[in-house]
Structure formats: C-alpha cells, structure tokens
Amino acid sequence: MHLEITDDFLNRLQISENLQAKALKKAKEGYVIALLEAGEISSGRAGKILGVSRLDILEMMGKWGISVFDDSQDLEELKQEVEQAESILAHQDS
After folding, report:
1. Which of 14, 23, 27, 87 stands the most exposed, by the fewest C-beta atoms within 10 Å?
2. How far apart, in whole angstroms, are the C-alpha atoms of residue 44 and residue 30?
3. Total tally of structural domains belonging to the chain
4. Residue 87, pLDDT score
C-alpha cells in the first residue's frame, strides 16, 4: 500500500491550515507509534522523532492501547531478566 498526501491534494480539500497541521501531527504520531509497537524503534528514538520526552511516549502508548511491557515474554523469561538485573545491581554495589 502506498499513501501519498500532497500539498496540492490538501489544498483542494479546502481544509484550514490549522486543521491540516493537527491531522498531519496525528498521522506522524500514529506512524511512529506503530513502528514502536512493532519493535522497529525504541521509545527514546520515538521521542526524538516526535520531539517529546520518553515519558510523553509512554503516555502516548497508553493512549494508543500499547503495553509498555513486552507481552511476548513468558514468566520464566521475565524471571531470568529480573535475576540478571539483580545480579548486575549486586555487582555494582560491591
């Protein structure tokens, strides 16, 4: 699928510049959030692209119905990840 929205097309719609800007901002946000959900970019990278903080990205993810947690992990994988983090923290304190 190819989607192209040209200035000429938008001008023919006779939509105000303000509304065009809002619509384009939402379209860009949706595109970036879709890349984030697919794992193609990180939340930090998404924030840089959209010019917002990582916290703002986390809030956007909630708004778009995307979990901030990796739902693909099973309980054993999550347990191993926690153990690795605890081990790293224990070595830093030594």
Report:
1. 14
2. 16
3. 1
4. 87
Read off the CATH number of the domain in which 30 is found: 1.10.10
Q: With H, G, I as helix, E, B as strand and everything else as coil, classify residue 67.
A: coil
Tokens 């692209």 belong to residue? 49
State how far the Cα of 69 lies from the Cα of 44, in Å rounded to an integer. 15
What value does the CA radius of gyration of the chain take, rounded to a whole number of Å? 19
Q: Alpha-carbon dihedral of residues 60, 63, 65, 71, nearest 10 degrees?
A: 40
Q: What are phi and psi of 2, to 5 degrees?
A: -125, 130
The two structure tokens encoding residue 8:
């000429």
Residues in the chain: 94
Give, for all 94 residues of the chain, the pLDDT tens digit. Answer: 787 878 788 778 888 889 988 988 999 999 999 999 888 998 899 999 999 998 899 899 989 888 877 666 678 877 888 888 888 888 876 6
Q: Is 18 part of any domain? A: yes
Give the C-alpha separation, 75 to 73, whole Å: 7
